[in-house]
Specification:
The protein is α+β, with helices and mostly antiparallel strands. The chain has helices spanning about 5-25, 30-70, 80-85, 95-100, 115-130, 180-190, 205-210, 220, 245-250, 280-295, 305-310, 340-350, 355-365, 390-400, 440-460, 475-480, 480-495, 520-535; strands at about 75-80, 110, 130-135, 150-155, 160-165, 170-175, 190-195, 230-235, 240-245, 260-270, 270-280, 300-305, 330-335, 355, 380-390, 410-415, 420-430, 435, 440, 465, 510, 515. Among the domains are: about 5-65; about 270-430, Vanillyl-alcohol Oxidase, Chain A, domain 3 (3-Layer(aba) Sandwich).
Length: about 550
């Protein structure tokens, strides 16, 4: 909701409150003059609301006329209900009760084919102060591409060109809509490759991951996406091209403008060495992660036993052996960083068993198949936090005490600088045990658990992985000093607040009347829900 809309609604709320005071409580004001004032205020309130909604209806008609013009000119425009529903969500399923709090619909979904069409969309949204939500492939689950204040979604997948490659300086400039997989394949034709890319790389766009921020394949050695981005060029209001400091833009979910071009660091293509180890005891594996990090692998991942079983649900017997009861650490090294003696020393120190070359290579080949856990769902809830490696044992022990072990699986991806990304997966079924208003109670409780896990991580100096909308209450923790720079830049680039409002910071609820900011609701509601989970009869869990 736009700022002046919010002020307007508060004004009407004030009039209605005064009307009730003068008109609906005659025992306090028996004088007929006061009741006349109350009647007049009621009439005034409803007249203002009527004019307001008629104005909105007129604007809506004008907007659709403009959309018809876009469509006639050759732009792809989606306006059917199922099309708008399809693009008004991301990979995560939102509980029914949460959907009631936000307007998760959109007016239309537009797919421009060139920069001039994109600028015309920005002009339309600026003219009518319509929220504009940029969207790549929607592979995140943080709500960064989900409209929460209606508006127009713009699909950027047509902007998929490689603009320039600088082989001497090892950089590549691309448009935002190219997928990481297509970019990687293109670079490999000239013996170059990416430093890091997301686990959703086959479908995730470059712009999507840069706007979301975070870690991925290759981040064990090369760090987060921040370390790979050289420059970002966005389109702000009036379609102006602005070059923005990547450290300020990354993680903003397009709230500062529409990302158009990105320049990335690349590296020479090299051979890889793949290794994997297992143990009867999970504690031994967790302790070994820090030592393996010191060997600078390109990619390091830990899957606990439950994770292994669920991922291979069609072939469970392969992992039933007690040899894998503690889980598996899989690693991939750049050949130039591979030192067999150092690896063997760590493996022997922690009394781990080394897996075969074929099995080690299999984990690398399956690095994009994390979401296979949905087989156990069919819905999937994930809590994703960045935690210090030295506190892994304490954090996972706290999870074990808090939740029934058979209900969740754990995956760890090593980041740089002594940190890991901890995934806690909760397979669920959003259709199960549904009740009016609340929807599926088990699913709702599992979804709220993600905030509970954030609190556990914070106790051990961890933090949420990224923001979007659902973790926006923790934006100051995620971005720290960077957040104030984001807010200042938004005022400069987007004075009307049309670009993806409510993301990262500034979300208000409930749906039709902004009484409370979202962060207050989460800070109060999540602990209450966590307590209720312990009280609610087990059959509803």
């Amino acid at each position: 909701m736009r700022t002046y809309d919010r002020l307007f609604m508060w004004f009407v709320f004030f009039l209605v409150t005064i009307s009730i005071y003068f008109f609906a409580l005659p025992e306090l004001h028996p004088n007929q003059e006061y009741q006349f004032v109350g009647v007049a205020l009621v009439i005034l309130s409803f007249s203002i609301l009527l004019i307001y909604f008629l104005t909105l209806k007129k604007q809506r008609k004008q907007i659709h006329i403009k959309l018809n013009t876009f469509q006639d000119a050759g732009m792809i425009v989606f306006r059917k209900k199922y099309e708008r529903l399809l693009y008004s969500r991301d990979i995560g399923d939102i509980p029914k009760i949460i959907r009631l709090l936000f307007n998760l619909n959109c007016l239309a979904v537009l797919q421009p084919k060139d920069i001039s069409e994109l600028r015309s969309i920005i002009d339309l949204c600026e003219q009518y102060r319509i929220p504009l939500i940029p969207r790549g492939a929607g592979t995140s689950g943080y709500g960064g591409t989900v409209p929460i204040k209606n508006g127009i979604i713009v699909l950027l997948t047509n902007f998929d060109k490689v603009i320039a490659i600088d082989e001497e300086n090892h950089t590549v400039e691309v448009e935002c809509g190219i997928t990481w997989e297509n970019l990687r394949k293109h670079l490999e034709t000239i013996n170059l490759t990416l430093k890091s890319y997301p686990s959703s790389g086959p479908s995730s766009t470059v712009g999507g991951w840069v706007a979301q921020g975070g870690y991925g394949v290759g981040s064990t050695k090369f760090g987060s996406v921040n370390n790979s981005v050289v420059s970002t060029v966005i389109l702000g209001t009036q379609g102006k091209e602005v070059q923005v400091n990547p450290d300020v833009f990354i993680g903003s979910c397009g709230k500062l403008g529409i990302l158009w071009k990105v320049t990335l660091k690349v590296r020479n293509l090299s051979d890889m060495v793949h290794r994997a180890v297992s143990s009867f005891h999970q504690d031994q594996l967790l302790k070994a992660i820090s030592a393996y990090q010191d060997l600078q692998p390109f990619f390091l991942r830990f899957d606990d036993h439950q994770n292994l079983l669920w991922k291979s649900s069609g072939n469970i017997s392969a992992w039933q052996s007690q040899e894998y009861a503690g889980g598996i650490i899989s690693m991939s090294f750049l050949e130039k960083n591979w030192h067999n003696g150092d690896f063997d020393e760590v493996t022997q120190k922690f009394e781990l068993s080394e897996l075969s070359d074929d099995l080690s290579k299999r984990f690398w080949d399956e690095r994009f198949q994390t979401i296979r856990l949905k087989r156990e769902g069919p819905s999937l809830i994930v809590a994703e936090v960045l935690v210090p490696t030295i506190h892994l044992h304490e954090i996972i022990e706290a999870l074990t005490k808090r939740y029934e072990r058979k209900l969740y699986a754990i995956e760890l991806v090593s980041a740089s600088d002594g940190f890991c990304i901890l995934f806690v997966w909760f397979p669920a079924d959003i259709r199960q045990k549904s009740v009016p208003i609340f929807g599926s109670l088990p699913y709702t409780f599992h979804w709220i658990r993600t905030f509970d896990i954030i609190q556990i991580a914070r106790h051990w100096k961890g933090k949420p992985y990224s923001s979007g909308i659902w973790f926006s209450p923790y934006s100051s923790l995620i971005f720290q000093k960077q957040l104030s720079k984001m807010k200042l830049l938004e005022k400069e680039i987007d004075p009307y607040g049309i670009f993806n409002p409510g993301k990262v910071w500034g979300a208000w609820i409930p749906r039709f009347f902004p009484i409370l900011p979202f962060w207050i609701t989460i800070r109060i509601g999540a602990p209450i829900a966590s307590l209720l989970y312990r009280i609610v009869p087990k059959r509803f869990r």
